[in-house]
Write a structure and sequence with these properties.
316 residues, mainly alpha, Flavocytochrome B2, Chain A, domain 1, 2 domains, two-stranded antiparallel sheet, 14 helices, 53% helix, 3% strand, transmembrane helix, transmembrane, iron ion binding, fatty acid metabolism, oxidoreductase
Length: 316
């Protein structure tokens, strides 16, 4: 039984800033598909010019190879795509992709998509990165102070700060597990190609990000829907923990979320120093997008990728 369009994974390589989806060519490659799979998500300029070895082989490609590669240029493939070129809202049309949806979202588009006809609704889908810490960090600070003051009613200041610190760190670690779980089992849940509503739900949750990974105004979570989610967790945790514990734990988890959003934004738009930890994380996340989207789910930490055996790849 053949692989359906919804199951076929792109095989993306980059040359001079352009992405090429060579999945259909891999089996025909004279050097074998293994070589191309090894280079998935990578800039191939030095390899194709013969400047670098791959799997022990150095080979300078002919002009014909460059011409053949152009057939798989993602930008060329996307020309004429009505969902990409639409000047009106495309959100409620995405469900019509059916079995093509999964492959479509993993062929990245270096631009932005218009989701709604209404300019007002469209503006509400965009959030500048600095809005997130501006809204949530004051709340983190407030609940941290409340926690220390509440603990101090039954302990001295030193021990109150220690208790706050311990529960704050537990909150941060809890966020990292939440982040991993959401990314792996919710955001990478695969919708039924027969259900336009499932496709729409997935596209809103995460598909849009994989389709337009460099759209800077849609990288962080807007505060209004975030506030509703925070409110739900407020009700759960405030009825689970004692008040000072809740304030410390909640502040830590909220701080973990803010750091996640900031790190995620930086991994897409920052320029970390080579060989630094952030450079490793940038390449690690880049490979999740462009090499293998079934591994490397951790954004702020790889801890849970180690635990659940979904470790991705850093720099070659």
């Amino acid at each position: 039984m053949g692989i359906g369009a919804d199951e076929k994974k792109p095989l993306l390589v980059q040359l001079n800033g352009q992405y090429y989806d060579i999945a259909d060519f891999a089996s025909k490659h004279p050097g074998g598909a293994k070589v191309l799979n090894r280079l998935a998500g990578e800039e191939i300029g030095e390899y194709i010019r013969g400047g670098k070895r791959i799997m022990g082989v150095r080979h300078e490609h002919s002009e014909a190879a460059y011409n053949m590669l152009e057939r798989y240029n993602v930008t060329t493939i996307q020309k004429g795509d009505p969902l990409i070129e639409s000047k009106t809202g495309m959100l409620f049309k995405v469900g019509s992709l059916g079995s093509e949806y999964w492959h479509w979202i993993h062929q990245p588009y270096d631009g932005t998509l218009r989701l709604f006809d209404s300019d007002l609704l469209e503006s509400m889908t965009r959030t500048a990165w600095w809005v997130v810490p501006s809204v949530w960090l004051p709340i983190v600070a407030l609940f941290s102070v409340i926690s220390v003051v509440s603990f101090s009613s039954s302990a001295d200041v030193y021990n109150s700060i220690l208790l706050w610190s311990a529960w704050f760190v537990i909150g941060v670690l809890t966020w990292t597990l939440t982040e991993y779980s959401l990314h792996r089992w919710v955001f990478h849940w695969k919708p039924s190609p027969e259900s336009p509503n499932q496709i729409l739900l997935h596209f809103l949750a995460h598909g849009l990000h994989h389709k337009t990974p460099m759209d800077g105004d849609r990288l962080v979570f807007p505060p209004v829907p975030a506030a509703m989610i925070v409110g739900i967790f407020y009700l759960i945790y405030s009825n689970t923990f004692q008040w000072p514990v809740f304030c410390a734990f909640g502040a830590g988890k909220l701080f973990g979320y803010v750091m996640y959003d900031m790190v995620h934004y930086y991994l897409h738009h920052g320029s970390p120093r080579p060989r630094s930890n952030l450079h490793f994380r940038k390449v690690y996340h880049h490979n999740h997008h462009f090499k293998n989207f079934d591994v490397g789910f951790g954004i702020s930490t790889s801890l849970w990728d180690y635990v659940f055996h979904t470790l991705g790849m850093g720099p070659l």
